[in-house]
Each structure stands twice: as structure tokens, then as C-alpha cells.
Amino acid sequence: MPRSYPTNSQLVRIQPNTNATETSPHSYSYVSIDAALGLPMFFRLYLLFRCFMYHSHLIRNSATQSLGYLNQVSMNFSFFSRAYINRWPTRCLSSFCILIFFVGSWCLRACSYRSNNEHLSMGDAMWLFSVTFTTVGYGDLYPSTYCSRTVAIIISLIGLFASALLIAVLSQKLSLDRAEKYVHGFVIGIQLAKRYEAQASNTIKFALKLWVLRRKGKTHS
After folding, report:
1. Where are the transmembrane segments (predicted)?
2. Helix, strand, coil share (%) of the chain residues, nearest 5
3. 210 and 143 both lie in a single domain
4. Which of 7, 56, 133, 165 has the least C-beta neighbours within 10 A?
């Protein structure tokens, strides 16, 4: 459990006519030492992404570097991330959401407190992250400090970005490629041709029946 710092920051109120003491809740501007020192450490994840980038074949391959230089394409982190998202959209999106889930849950747990000045449990922090990430917001749990509110705003913005990316990935997965569109159009064309032939044959059949009925009517008259 993250430590409360400073230890004497909690105000103690003595109830009148009793010897019981009640701890007042933390102010909105209160930030624990673990949150102040722990949250900036997550910026080190950028080093992990840089490690993946410099060990990628897109960067290590000299032919790719030359081709990018001739076409004035910068082989930087932006190109690396977009190339991998375009190649493995489902895998990249799932890894990103799982990473953000655990990091965001820990940040909310470190910055949020209950009325008794205890940190949220990890399960409650995960639930708060889920309702914030999906922008649902049931209201049973809410950020209690400015630090947790800032984290919640960042999580909601990331959730909107992930939702848009998920819609793009689903639309790409559900759309037909060129060969599938050709086969689908060919099958639809055959079905339409058969339907037109059936309608044409029915028209000729009804016309012949009408002609026969008219001939019979003239004969009887």
C-alpha cells in the first residue's frame, strides 16, 4: 500500500464530550510521496518503445533506410508506430489497452483516497479505470484529489482515442478486399441475371396464355 506523506498531514478532530478522534479527509491538493515519485517513472516506457523501434527490421535494414531516404520518408518513431499498427492492428491495439489498463489503474489507486484516507483497492481502481476509459461514469467511485482528476482526464482522452482506433480496425477487418469484392460482385451479377431471365420467361409465358385465351374467345364467338 502506498505510504501517506507527510505523516502528520492528516488533521485530527476531537469530538466534543468524547475522547474519540476522527481523521479528516485529505484535501484536493494532497499528493502522496508515492504518487509524486511513481507517476513520472512511467515516462520510462518511452525507452521500451525506442528499444523496440531500434531493434525493428524497418530501422536495421539498410535497404529500407535507403528507400526511405530516396522517398523523403523519415524513419522515426511516428513512422515505426504507424507501420506496425497498419500491419498488426489488433495485436497493437490489444497490447496498448492492456498496458494502459494496468498503468492507469495503479495511477488512480495512488492518487485516490476514501473518506478514511485509505487508498482505493486495486479492484476498485481497475473498476474506476474501466468506467473512465469507456466514458461511462456510473458515479459509484470518483476521483478524490486533483491528481486523480488529472489522471482521469488523461485516461478518458486515451479512451476516446482507443475507441476511434477500435472502430477503424473493425471497419478494416469487416471490409472486403479487392478479390473478395470481385467475387461478391460476380455472384450478385449472376443472381441478378437469373432473376431477369426468370422474369422474362414469366412475361413470355403470361403473354402466350393471354394470346391463347383471346384466340379461344374469338373461336367461341
Report:
1. 28-47, 91-108, 151-171
2. 70, 5, 25
3. no
4. 7
> Which of 145, 127, 146, 147 has the alpha carbon at shortest distance from 137?
127
For 160, other C-beta atoms within 10 Å of its C-beta total: 13
pLDDT digits (tens, 9 = 90+) for 46-67: 787 778 777 777 777 777 777 7
Please tell me the pTM assigned to this model.
0.61
Give how far Cα 164 sits from Cα of 93, 100, 105, 212, Å: 11, 16, 21, 66
Q: Which domain holds residue 193?
A: 178-221
Give the end of a domain, one of 158, 174, 190. 174
CATH code: domain of residue 132? 1.10.287.70
Residue 5 belongs to a domain:
no
Alpha-carbon distance of 154 to 168, in angstroms, equals: 21
**Cis amide linkage into residue 6, ω under 30° from 0:** yes
Q: How far apart are CA 221 and CA 210, in angstroms?
A: 17
165 and 208 part of one domain:
no
